[in-house]
Amino acid sequence: MKRRVYILFSILFVIAIHGKAQTHVQTATRFQTTTATTISKAFASSSTSGNLIVVHVDWDNQARSVSSVTDTKGNSYARINGPTNWNGANYRAELWYAYNITGGGGAITITATLSGAPTSFSQIYISEYSGIVSSINPLDQNSVAIGNSAAVSSGAAITTGTNELVYGASIGASGTLSTGAGFTNRSTANSNIIEDKNVVAAGSYSSNFTSAGGNWIAQMATFRTTNIILPVDLLSFNGRCDHKDIVLDWSTASENNNDYFTIERSVDGNTWKNMGTVKSAGNSSIAQNYSFTIENVDNQTSYFRLKQTDLDGKTNYFKTIQVGSCDLAFSGVNIYPNPSNGRSLFGKINVTSIEKYTIEIFDNNGKIVTRLTSTQPEFSLNFQYVLQQGIYYAKISSPKYSSVTQFLVAH
What SS3 state is found at 35? Predict the structure, then answer.
């Protein structure tokens, strides 16, 4: 398989990532004694676009796993860890998350679907957080452990960034669990614990609890918050078909001690294969544009993600995109007028076969402005209020393609 790599240069605005540390917004739980293959729970209040949702699910049949986690806003959820067997041959658990969510309107209801019926019960814990970075995948580290000692721990993992959120969940088969030192308790429903804390420095962390006895499972995940300074500020990452080839394009606003990018591909969104690397500009305060071509791709939907490696060997993962089978010949999106007056926006999807797609408009802080679903090649958006001047992004996505296009608002 041949690969073509080239670098283009252009000057754009530099976007800094900054903000406040994470804030716990709300947690909701449900325990059900039933053999139903689904379990659903709604938050008490409406969620805010751009936030993070973390979902713990466990049940009592180790032949089952979570097939999907979905919600009423159409947000995309990914597995953090699991399925993990615990309490001998009895129970199983998984941890999932969604970031840069679409919120607003009524409260979000989250549904976890199992691959088959549990023996007698299932339970779900859902938590929402603000202040989590949304321009890249915020998940940094995760760990999970099982045991039956009085000291409960997920096991340690070393965070790569400063000012991270450490989320912990522990479920006990018997006895009472209590919150770990330094953590804030978010739920004690059904005698289990959901906890979190902010950590300023990068280092080794675990989610800790105490137990009165009995078997337990402890899970941890850490997430980057908006008051980090990333070595690479990613402007965009999208994929398109060029006949039987897939072309991946991405742009950075700034780079600091960046060494190279790694392109990874998956056909199921879980197992990833290294497709190649692209040498970076290293240090730059102006925009850099990159492209990577994978030739003669098999005719199936693929997932791609970018991995960035610093000169000191530290790594960061950026968002995952989906590119459909190349028989659709998707060749991008035209946005006009550009610059926009901030009141309306028009566009056209350049694809030979139209399918249902979603248009999302984001500002340069990753906050969603508006969202539209359509099946027409041309679309128009009228904003509820006049947008402020600056850089905005139009994300076009469907089950078979994804693209992000930058545009300006100038009054």
Answer: coil
